[in-house]
Amino acid sequence: MRDSKKEHYASFDDVDTKKIVTCPSCSSSIHRKRLEDELYVCPECGYHFKLTPAERIAQIADQNTFEEFAADLTSRNPIALKGYEAKVSQNQRDSDLKDAVVVGTCTIDGQETVMGIMSFQFMGGSMGSVVGEKITQALLQGADTNTPVILFTASGGARMQEGIFSLMQMAKTASAAALLEATATPLFIVLTHPTTGGVTASFAMLGDVIIAEPRALIGFAGPRVIEGTIGQQLPKDFQTAEFQQKRGFVDAIVHRKELRRTLSFLLSAHAKRGR
Amino acid sequence: MRDSKKEHYASFDDVDTKKIVTCPSCSSSIHRKRLEDELYVCPECGYHFKLTPAERIAQIADQNTFEEFAADLTSRNPIALKGYEAKVSQNQRDSDLKDAVVVGTCTIDGQETVMGIMSFQFMGGSMGSVVGEKITQALLQGADTNTPVILFTASGGARMQEGIFSLMQMAKTASAAALLEATATPLFIVLTHPTTGGVTASFAMLGDVIIAEPRALIGFAGPRVIEGTIGQQLPKDFQTAEFQQKRGFVDAIVHRKELRRTLSFLLSAHAKRGR
Amino acid sequence: MNEQDKNPQKDQIDKLFGELEQLAQQQQMDLGSDLSTLKAKMVPVLKNRETTACSPWDKVCLARHVQRPGSLEYINMMCDDFMELHGDRCYGDDTALIGGIGTIDGRAITFIGNQKGSNLKENIARNHGMGHPEGYRKALRLVQQAEKFNRPVVSFIDTSGAYPGLASEERGIGEAIARNLKEFSVLKVPVLCFIIGEGGSGGALGIGVGDKLYMLENAVYSVISPEGFASILLRDSSKAEEAANTMKITAEDLKEFGIIHDIIPEPVGGAHKDPQLVASHIKKIITRDLDILCSKPADRLVRYRIKKIRGIGHFNGAQSWWDQLLNIFQLTRALK
Amino acid sequence: MNEQDKNPQKDQIDKLFGELEQLAQQQQMDLGSDLSTLKAKMVPVLKNRETTACSPWDKVCLARHVQRPGSLEYINMMCDDFMELHGDRCYGDDTALIGGIGTIDGRAITFIGNQKGSNLKENIARNHGMGHPEGYRKALRLVQQAEKFNRPVVSFIDTSGAYPGLASEERGIGEAIARNLKEFSVLKVPVLCFIIGEGGSGGALGIGVGDKLYMLENAVYSVISPEGFASILLRDSSKAEEAANTMKITAEDLKEFGIIHDIIPEPVGGAHKDPQLVASHIKKIITRDLDILCSKPADRLVRYRIKKIRGIGHFNGAQSWWDQLLNIFQLTRALK
Ligand SMILES: [Zn+2]
Ligand SMILES: [Zn+2]
């Protein structure tokens, strides 16, 4: 529901095209290779760069275990909005993705999991019918096979170009989370920079354990909306991961270098066993 | 857990002994008969006088339907505290009660209910083993027979003269409330002036619907404790029924004249019927 | 239609009948009832005409009309008796989102609803119907109480959205809405939702997941306000009217999409012209639906509700998924 | 015993062995291990002596000792791995009450505990271990999460009480504690409680309802602090020592009352003298108890827990109630 487009071009960390990358947080110049070794965390200031789903999978999943499903789903234009198809096509070409989320199965330290990774690169990670459907399929696959689900969020909110259908994806994904819960299968959420709007107000806040990457922006209404509409002065750390932890909505802030280990621990701690 | 004794003698509304009663809130002089007609609400300022269990029953229950149970329970001296037996005896003589709560069954507009009424007159309504047991019996009787339970609270807190046993009554009554809940039988709480300490931190806050009488003092730690220990300035309406409603802990503030009608409505709205 | 209830046809008819009545009185003819019968006969005609004539933006204006009846008004008109219940048992009581227990023909129902004020002062007190997290948590508490006692739920939606402010974010408006979406979707009692005015975004959806969803004729339901849509996608916040006409937010659009079950007609000029009439329409639907839904076993109710929600979305490459859903329900003891 | 760990016997023995060791070193004799073996043999003797010698007030002082190990220390000493989890998902994260998931010999356990600081600065950050409502609500969230995943719970109690302040009252500390008492009593997984220091009133009980309750040898558990008891019942707050000796708050008293299951011995001078040793005692009990309790069906677990709680109280005129309780359990689908 926020102007994801502006934010996209202002801060998207386009690490794939240049040899030398400038950190959007501290402006340090970093060699691409160095950054890759550091898991795309700025060695100077600790800024966590945005990742593509492929990079995230490479960092988290056991090698060559990720099997994508629902890969062929693509957007329609449910409210017949002028220009929407073209915009989707453009984003598909730019990002090499079909839409703003990739879902599949993999193992982490040999432990089965269903994994979904949103991409802010694709229309600001906005949730339309395709994202809603794929997240829902991931959650229901978890419920059906009793396999823990891990979702990495990154989103500017609902994809308003799909009108009321984008709003309904909030209910759809949340109700899928309810079914996962009813089967007592764990849902682990990793909030990455930025996660806002309709994604925050649906499955992103429904994890049994909610992890955030350091300094990630997490909120419902964006700072500009709040300052604009209401004219309120906002605290400096407003809507950071640290703010959200202090406010009780994030279980743990985990550095990217610890993330795989942490998820592996959570999977093992939630493994089925005789009590 | 609070110094109920001081409060007792400072403000207990001893309406039974004098022809002319002075309102503790506005100092108006009121004829006893007038006050009775007004259900012991000051006609000048609306102050709700403390009631004896007998008065409360007369106001709420259908005439002659109240049947007391567990009437014979009386205190022992579990930590062998010097002077406790004498104090209990004195309170029994003064109040014409066996301990700080009366429990029984009755009907309200013909609807069966289990009812418990605490008395602040008896050792400041403090909860020891007898109060805990009687409240527990009321809740379990409700659970066993699927009869709604209505509890009128008035208490300075745990009866510290019974040491750890008084603390344990909090767990005991709360666990009985859990069983009532497990049988999907409603619990209605009426918070009356004052309700504090261990009673607030147990069954008093566990009603499906929580009603308070206007301006009743309701809280956990007393204002004096907070100002004394922590040195904090407290707002004017601190721990009033109105404060608690604003804070989200009271469903409705109901004037004593509307109380019987309200409880009757709640009983009928919760009556078992084919959905 | 800048003045919100300006309506040339209606005005003209009013004027004509006014003059006729005056004439009749002057001549001491007792034609009052004849005249009103005649006038009433013209209303359906007018209504149909107006419905088709009313643009989406007109409906936005009507949905926001300051005199438009709100949740409490409808509740009080429909119920034999109603007791408002307050608080989320955690932080506070939100007056922008009300709830309680009411009876209709003796049947107890838990009501929840967004609540605006009917004048500026009330509107400020009720934060213009924009709920904070504690409002959504109160709603959740009340519907779970309803579930405990096997009591159906009726929800009235009427908000431009959840409150976008610091306090709202601090106390987790995102979490509060998310939790409601999840819990409402598996609630074991019937939930009927009525969009009576503005259905704005997550703040509306947060109490809008149920078995049946109805919209009043002039209500709107959208993922973002026309103003927001205009400012972001049309890059000009003054193009709200254009946005409204593009966004597909009217009851007719949503019925066509299969998102709502039915449209409830309003009197000429909008619901505020005859609140009692609208209340009686809503009441009839409530009674009819609950007679049916309350007799269904809880697991079937939930299965049907979930199936409906799960099916919403437009994309290429759908898969069959109904078997999987059935599987999960068979596995799931918690929903029985 | 004004200086909290002054202990003439222990001091003398320490001194003697210190001199012996120095002598041995001077003469380059390798007697280190012999000496420590000998010293260790004297510990149980000393312990028994001291236990009987230690007054209730001495124990209050030991229980409050600033160096006394706290919840996180024990958790970190016992667990293969531990992940702290934060927040109540509603208002905030209370650092005075911690929780998370840890593994002991590969078994996953949800831990919760009051948490004081180990120095003044930490103590201020942790509000001296006095929890706010959000702390108790975090604990509830974590134990309900444990229940969902069939994970046992271990609770460490170490607080002088819930925080008596404005913010605490505003956010409903009474409600938060009450809800925990209720929910913990019917939790369908084993709950083991350890009072490791101060067990102060509702703030302790709020995470203290479980299947088994243990106390460290020098821990205390009371309905009100000795200072509070003195000021109210003895009308002189300086009579805390007299109060402590009257109130029956030691592990021995509570074991005699049947309120706790067992006493866990501490090293001479208190738990802080050898935290690792105490941790190993606790760990052994956890492993032993969970091996037994985790194999029991949930309904039997809850029935036994409720029966225990229901039976606590001293009064004249008891009635038999066990049949009624059984009845209720048979009626109650929710607990199965
Ligand atoms: Zn940097
Ligand atoms: Zn008065």
Report what the structure shows.
- In chain A, the strands form two sheets. Chain A has a seven-stranded mixed β-sheet, with helices on both faces. In chain A, strands 1-2 form a two-stranded antiparallel sheet.
- In chain A, α5 packs parallel to α6.
- Chain A has helices at 4-11, 32-37, 53-60, 84-95, 129-145, 164-182, 197-200, 223-230, 241-246, 256-269, and strands spanning 20-22, 29-31, 67-69, 74-75, 101-108, 111-118, 149-155, 187-195, 209-212, 252-253.
- In chain A, 37% of the residues lie in helices and 18% in strands.
- Chain A is globular, with a radius of gyration of 18 Å.
- Chain A has a single domain, classed as 2-enoyl-CoA Hydratase, Chain A, domain 1.
- With 275 residues, chain A is α/β, with parallel strands linked by helices.
- The model of chain A is unreliable at 1-12 (pLDDT under 50).
- In chain A, α7 links the parallel β8 and β9 (209-212).
- With 336 residues, chain C is of the alpha/beta class.
- Helix content of chain C is 49%, strand content 15%.
- Chain C contains 15 helices and nine strands.
- In chain C, strands 1, 2, 3, 4, 5, 6, 7 and 8 form an eight-stranded mixed β-sheet that branches.
- In chain C, a hairpin with a 2-residue loop joins β2 and β3.
- In chain C, α1 packs antiparallel against α2 (32-53), α4 (71-78) packs across α13 and α10 (226-233) packs across α11 (240-247).
- The longest helix of chain C is centred in the N-terminal third of the chain and has 22 residues, at 32-53.
- The model of chain C is unreliable at 1-8 and 43-50 (pLDDT under 50).
- The chains are: A alpha/beta (275), C alpha/beta (336).
- Chains in contact: A-C, A-D, B-C, B-D, C-D.
- β4 (74-75) of chain A pairs antiparallel with β9 of chain C.
- The complex binds zinc ion (ZN) (2 copies).
- One zinc ion (ZN) is lined by residues 23, 25-26, 28, 42, 44-45, 47 of chain B.
